[in-house]
Amino acid sequence: MSDLSAVYELLETSGFAGFNSPEGIQKVMSGLIERDAALTRIEMAMQAQGYRPDQYATAEGISGLIDELHGVTSDTGSGLNMLAVPQAWTQTHRRHRMNVFTPRREDFDILDIARALSMKVRFGGFVSQFYSVAQHSVMVSLLVPGEYALTALLHDATEAYTADVVTPQKRVMTQFQQVEEALWQAIAAWHDLPAEIPACVHHADAQALIWEAKLLLAGGPMWIPESVHPDIPAELIRRFPRAGLFPLTAEGLFLDRYAALTGRDPRRA
After folding, report:
1. Where are the alpha helices (DSSP H) in 54-120?
2. 95 is a domain residue
């Protein structure tokens, strides 16, 4: 395993051997007390893998860590490097530490989601004007029956913590799909939403996409025939903003819709 080998190599080049047993590790740590430079490099290597200093500050701690490194290599099902997972976190706008591989309920914050989605643009940014995922989400929530509206509003909430990957690319990104699915399951549990996004939400999402593609893509979408039009009520099209909203305005629109659907305005909490 390359990550463990790198740590071993650092120890070997620092003149230590016999460190693959608890007794050997204890001897190594005793010697490292007098080898500050080598210890620093080894600690940096360990920290790069997401382990805290207090996990290897003692002989017992580092021997346990070596045992753990022996037993944890990679998740063969997903191909993820599990040694890197502990450090795969993002600091959010509201100062939560979100790890998309191990999402925790307490790290989700609707204000974070609204802010991030309002800053992310549709169609990979290849648009004639800024149009955010937050604005898209509000449109989708207005196209479904009331009992599905909150699910529709949050159907792209995973993208607050990952990215708005365009669909043709996402279809071949198996690991990304797995991460996104795990995130959705956590978000759904957080708001008591369906574990599987309902068909009516997928339909509304597709109709909003057709409308937005015709509105935003220069010359119109190449994959949608001109004769195809979105199944969106004319009244909604008349009153919904045709221009892309500035991010903070889109954020406010998203939060207004969230407050209307839940009876809770997080801005007033």
Report:
1. 59-71, 110-119
2. yes
Using one digit for the tens of pLDDT, what is the confidence trace for 121-149?
999 999 999 999 999 999 999 999 999 99
pTM, full prediction: 0.70
Spatial CA neighbour of 208 closest among 120, 122, 145: 122
Give the gyration radius of the chain's Cα atoms: 24
Q: Are residues 63 and 124 in the same domain?
A: no
**Residue 80 belongs to a domain:** no
166 Rama sector, left if φ>0, alpha if ψ -120 to 50, beta otherwise: beta
Q: What is the pLDDT of residues 225-258, one digit of tens each?
A: 999 999 999 999 998 988 999 999 999 999 999 9
**Number of separate domains in the chain:** 2
* Containing structural domain, residue 194: 89-268
DSSP 261: H
CATH of residue 224: 1.10.3210.10
d(CA 137, CA 169): 20
